[in-house]
Amino acid sequence: MPESDLALLTRAARAAAETALTYTGEALNVRYKAADGSPVTDADMAVNRVLSGILRAARPDYGWLSEESADDPARLSAGHVFIVDPIDGTRSFIEGSDSWAHSLAVARDGAVTAAVILMPMRDRLYSAALGEGATLNGTALAASGVADPEQAQVLATKPAADPKHWQDGTPGFHRVHRPSIAYRLGLVAEGRFDAMVTFRATWEWDIAAGALILSEAGARMTDRSGAPIRFNAPVPQHDGIVAANPALHARLLAAIAPRV
What we know:
Layout: H1 5-21, E1 31-32, E2 39-40, H2 42-58, E3 63-66, E4 80-88, H3 90-95, E5 101-108, E6 111-119, E7 124-129, E8 134-136, E9 139-140, E10 153-155, E11 174-176, H4 181-189, E12 195-203, H5 204-216, E13 220-222, E14 237-244, H6 246-255
């Protein structure tokens, strides 16, 4: 029986972890991207090569979109596309922390159909296939049922809690932060936190895997205006993210100030 996309992503993520862990504690040759000042290391590039080798060999007709590869416009005409962040949370990786992840997804016609977020240092494997539910290490996930923003625990950076982003001042939620966007989305999917909000422009490789895992766990994810995310966009970046169960998602959206 042919290997499913989800099985392929899982196998590739495990191989990525083996490669990344060989760099832990070594000189990483850290440099910074001219475009946005974000760090990249030899580990990021090595993991990208491993993922590309496994995934593209198995599905040569799939497009490819990765944070660490030059963008190839051919992906736009592909029926399926891999959307990959080799190491999400590179700063955490550099610091020797454990809050970094491999984030891998397959999208078809703008929608994610298979997804894996693997956190090697925490032994956490979030995964989902369209219509088949989401799991963490094999256990089914369900988003929280908290509907009141005042009672919610929200994963967000400190700037996201600035009153300028909210119509009537910042809601009284409890703000918490984790370094990896993929990890934040996984935490919302498993119900450990109630929502995730960011107002920064967000790259698809950070959110593609988490989008399906959230959806299959009963949560909703849109951009800051409430528009659904269509993946494999010509410019693969979107206007912020709001992720939560449907009731809380609606109330958070209603509280966000329009962009001026």
